[in-house]
């Protein structure tokens, strides 16, 4: 599955990653997988303000992901 | 009711936006606008060469539209206008225009205040300052979240 990152998460992961998961997983499972590969990103990815989207829809940590999903992790936002 | 929400990647002209808002507000008694401008110094006093605002190809505009629509819903205003920059912004250049028109002034003041409190914390943009010391991501301060939450 394709995983895209925005904001400061790009400093660690770049703009996107291709992730292969052997078993179905949830958003939280994907998060754990990403942190296992980048322990230095644990704090940034665990930030409560980080949101995940699939198909431009906000998803919860417990939501299941499909292999074809494109998941987007949005770092804390700041406008104005 | 008129709602305008735009994301501008290259330039923002506050004079044009205000003229458009005044035109839209013909017949209203109050037109309030706010312009956010890039500062030359960071909060710690370090010089800033430029600010970079990154956006999402679809969700950023949607967030601006939602914030503008919620302001229109919440206050007795006839027009709401939000225009936000993304991309590279030099000190002194405008970042955001937020304005509203209403029959009487209080609603337009409140709507503009609300728009900015929401934009600071809820607009889907990622801001970093670039200066001689490198690049630094900027996140909302606690007071920004407090300012937003006071509207709940």
Question: What does the average pLDDT of chain B come to?
Answer: 97
Reading side by side through the largest sheet of chain B, how are the strands ordered? Answer: 1-4-6-2
**Low-confidence region ranges of chain A:** none
Helical amount of chain A: 25-40%
H/E element order of chain A: EHEEHHEEEE
Provide the residue-averaged pLDDT of chain A: 94
Sheet/helix structural class of chain B: alpha+beta
Strand residue content of chain A: 25-35%
Radius of gyration of chain B: 15 Å
Give the uncertain stretches of chain B in residue-range form: none
Shape of chain B: globular
Terminal residue distance of chain A? 33 Å
**DSSP strand count of chain A:** 7
Give the amount of beta strand of chain B, in percent.
Answer: 25-35%
Overview of this protein structure:
The complex is a heterodimer of chains A (80) and B (152). Chain A is α+β, with helices and mostly antiparallel strands and 80 residues long. A 5-stranded mixed beta sheet of chain A has the order 2-1-7-4-5. In chain A, strands 3-6 form a two-stranded antiparallel sheet. In chain A, strand 4 and strand 5 form a beta hairpin. By secondary structure, chain B is an alpha+beta fold. In chain B, strands 1-4-6-2 form a 4-stranded mixed beta sheet, sandwiched between helices. Chain B is globular. The interface between A and B is medium-sized, with 14 and 27 residues.
């Amino acid at each position: 599955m394709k995983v895209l990152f925005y904001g400061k998460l790009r400093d660690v992961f770049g703009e996107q990653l291709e992730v292969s998961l052997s078993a179905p997983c949830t958003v939280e499972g994907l998060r754990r997988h990403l942190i296992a590969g980048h322990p230095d990103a644990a704090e940034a990815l665990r930030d409560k303000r980080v949101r995940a989207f699939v198909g431009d829809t906000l998803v919860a940590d417990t939501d299941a992901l499909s292999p074809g999903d494109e998941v987007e992790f949005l770092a804390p936002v700041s406008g104005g | 009711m008129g709602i305008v929400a735009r994301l501008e990647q290259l330039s923002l002209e506050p004079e044009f936006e205000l003229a458009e808002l005044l035109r839209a507000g013909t017949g209203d008694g109050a037109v309030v606008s706010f312009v956010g401008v890039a500062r030359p110094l960071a909060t710690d006093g370090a010089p800033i060469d430029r600010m970079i605002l990154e956006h999402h190809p679809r969700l950023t505009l949607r967030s601006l539209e939602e914030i503008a629509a919620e302001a229109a819903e919440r206050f007795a205003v006839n027009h709401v206008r939000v225009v936000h920059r993304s991309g590279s912004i030099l000190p002194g250049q405008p970042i955001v225009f937020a304005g509203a028109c209403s029959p009487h002034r209080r609603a337009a003041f409140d709507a503009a205040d609300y728009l900015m409190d929401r934009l600071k914390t809820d607009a889907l943009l990622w801001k970093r300052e670039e200066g001689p010391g490198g690049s630094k991501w900027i996140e909302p301060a606690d007071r920004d979240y407090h300012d937003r939450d006071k509207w709940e």
